[in-house]
Amino acid sequence: MGVSRSSPEKGISVVTVDYPPVNAVPVRGWFALAEAVRAAGRDPGIRCVVLAAEGRGFNAGVDIKEIQAAGHEALIGANQGCAEAFAAVYECETPVVAAVHGFCLGGGIGLVGNADAVVASEDATFGLPELDRGALGAATHLARLVPQHLMRTLYYTGRTASAAELHGHGSVWAVVPRAELPGAALELARQIAAKDGRLLRMAKSALNGIDPVDVRRSYRFEQGFTFEANLSGLADRVRDTFGRSGTEGV
């Protein structure tokens, strides 16, 4: 249980998240994930990192129960932890391949949207149910997976998109049966890791340098509205009514 690292092949590091039952990640887990990805990227022998998960789904976002129990302190910790984990994936010195199965929600979108490549199982679904949780965030990353208008519709409705839909938009490299996902992700990582290690690191820096959006700053801007919703009490009211705060307008 937790975050672990393994090296199934030379040049490849697999970072695995395992927080049963649904991979709703606690505050400490986001920071552990960030450190694991950064450590893998710093290793001169690693040329590609695979981000994977155990259990029913890839990621269910933050641990809402932890936030409800510990209040603003946990909210601040979760926001800081998510920001660090998402940034660690984006800033990892080597390419990161996300291997996604089952549900990929909330914080999971932040991780996958910042990855360099995505391989998904046929049962994978992607979405941001943030408005039902009294929160905002990770639209920055969903916008890297789907076109702008689709991103907005998914965000406002809380609906999910399938792996096949994302494959159609070009953001998922391959869709495979669930049993074949680990092998498919490793195969892509193997192809990447076959390149010269120093040149791969230069390529990662170059591609990040020409990105039109500063993903770290953009996400932190979004998080400000999550703080506002929580400080005003709106977030609690929305969560208590399963995403429906009534008809009072504001």
TrEMBL record:
Keyword set, alphabetical order: Lipid metabolism, Lyase
PANTHER family for the chain: (7AS)-7A-METHYL-1,5-DIOXO-2,3,5,6,7,7A-HEXAHYDRO-1H-INDENE-CARBOXYL-COA HYDROLASE, ENOYL-COA HYDRATASE-RELATED
Tagged with keyword Iron: no
InterPro entries, alphabetized: ClpP/crotonase-like_dom_sf (IPR029045), Enoyl-CoA_hydra/iso (IPR001753)
Protein name: Enoyl-CoA hydratase family protein
Coiled-coil parts of chain: none
Short name of any one Pfam family annotated for the protein: ECH_1
The family this protein is said to belong to: Belongs to the enoyl-CoA hydratase/isomerase family.
